[in-house]
Amino acid sequence: MARDATPSDLTITPRDRRFGRGVRTERWWNGGDPVATALYNALSATFPKGEAFFVESVRLFRDGANPKLAAEIKAFTTQEVMHSREHMQFNKRAHEAGYDLSALEDRVDWRLDLVRSRPPIASLAATMALEHFTAILAHELLRDPRHLAGADAETAAMWRWHAIEEIEHKGVAYDTWLHATRDWPRFKRWKVKAKVMLLVTRNFVVDRTLGSLELLRQDGITGPGAWARLFWFAWVRPGMLRKIFAAWASFFMPGFHPWNHDDRALIEREEKTLSAQVA
């Protein structure tokens, strides 16, 4: 059985920040690069509805949780609600810059409807896997400044703020999964979570690729050139998806828990940077 490795002194702190109000975000806000912009815009298109789904899935299994986990679920909910709010605003600015995100949002609806057609434990399992995925993406985003090199300051600050909180609450869905499946045999628990992670990974890569290509099409970038440029950015340089592979693979190891890797020092460093920007 995977152990509960969430640090006993961890505090999940909702940071009520607002970004980009009353300002115009450039169409290619990420370093003037349409490919970098497309990938992050495609990811942002998933967040308002996706994070509402995460909250819904976790809260269904909070009954009987110990007081610490119950408090973490409450803080997780608050953080996710604010993330949805800020990405709704960001997506609005992307629309004002000339992008149509409706096809991407419709695909999110389709994916979520498929999951919701299954028993609630399937929604929790998908949330657990996706929360690990977002946490390791967030870690890499903060670890290597090249991912947002050249991005406008306000938008980069929003992504870093979001990443800080994704890391901070990375154990909540997993601990809720452990609570919900506490009576399952060890192998059944591992088999289900492994199958769900493989499916989630496939869908994540396919959907974000298609979404990015759609936004590039709206910029007049199509065909093999669009595929090649997107592949290079995502997998080679700066290569976000390549760099998270080891952390992704750790999910399948015996004794896995998101907090087996304690990266609170990264949170502390980034909070200081954001506080200096605000000042």
TrEMBL record:
Coiled coil: none annotated. Gene3D superfamilies: Heme oxygenase-like. InterPro entries: Haem_Oase-like_multi-hlx (IPR016084), UCP07580 (IPR016516). Pfam families: Metal_hydrol (PF10118). This is Metal-dependent hydrolase. The lineage of its organism: Bacteria, Pseudomonadati, Pseudomonadota, Alphaproteobacteria, Sphingomonadales.
